[in-house]
Amino acid sequence: MKSTSSSRETSNSGSHRMMAVVTSPKADGRSLARRVVEVGGSSLNFDYAHFLPSSPKCGVLHGHTASVRVGLTGRLVDDMVVEFGELKDILRSIINMMDHKLIVSRKYVKIQDGRASISFRGIGGEYMIETPVASIYVIDSESTSENISAHIAALIRERMPENVSGIYVRLSEGLNKWSISTVDAEPYG
After folding, report:
1. What is the radius of gyration, based on Cα positions, of the chain?
2. Which has the least CB within 10 A, 89, 158, 182, 185?
3. Closest CA to 48 of 67, 59, 64, 69
4. What secondary structure letter does DSSP report for 62?
5. Are 139 and 101 in contact (CB under 8 A)?
6. Residues 6+ apart with CB under 8 A from 13
7. DSSP code per residue over 124-180
8. At residue 150, does pLDDT exceed 60?
């Protein structure tokens, strides 16, 4: 909803002209309008490996180059939802933790003495992987693109200011396929 007010402006020649000023309704001095900012691009790509034991095609260890696009909705503070550079830095710090790692569900991992033992039953039988802990990134669920994008969205939410009311993360793991996860924050007041 927009409200329009008119004002009269006098030019140097003495003639008058009308101009429309479009404003957003305000409550308690704050704009009710929500805005969306979005970041993406090749600097927000990362490579990872994973496996999905219950999937005939993805039940073996394989990898992807993922691209990430993030959008935020929220109330303007100092005429911005958040600075683009700040959002990109936060997103980069998150995806850097996953870059060139095996993303794996917690249920398959046992950690001891700085080593990770990963075992699962997948296509073709039992799999066992021994690797340094530094080479894996553990999440609470299966490492589907849907769950990875939801994990990224939750990590972004933890780092956002109160004026951000919603987040979406679009994760592509190849051409013409992606998952989108959204996180709604508490309504701002």
Report:
1. 24
2. 158
3. 64
4. E
5. no
6. none
7. TEEEEEEEEGGGEEEESS---HHHHHHHHHHHHHHTS-TTEEEEEEEEEEETTEEEE
8. yes
pLDDT at 122: 85
Residue 76 in contact with residue 163, Cβ under 8 Å? yes
Strands 62-75 and 109-112: unpaired
Instruction: Quote the CA–CA distance of 83 and 96 in Å, as a whole number.
Output: 20
Q: Terminal CA-to-CA distance of the chain, rounded, Å?
A: 18
CA dist 117 → 18, 35, 148 (Å): 74, 46, 21
Place of tokens 């609470």: 140
Which residues lie closer than 8 Å to 73 by C-beta, 6 or more apart?
34, 35, 36, 81, 164, 165, 166, 167
- Residue range 155-172: average pLDDT? 95
The pLDDT value given to residue 28: 53
The CATH fold assigned to 30-184 is: Tetrahydropterin Synthase; Chain A (3.30.479)
Q: What is the DSSP letter of 80?
A: B
Reported pTM: 0.80
pLDDT by residue (tens digit) across 92-144? 999 999 999 999 999 999 999 999 999 999 878 899 999 999 999 999 999 99
Give me the pLDDT at residue 70, please: 97
Q: What residues pair up with 100 in beta bridges, in sequence order?
A: none
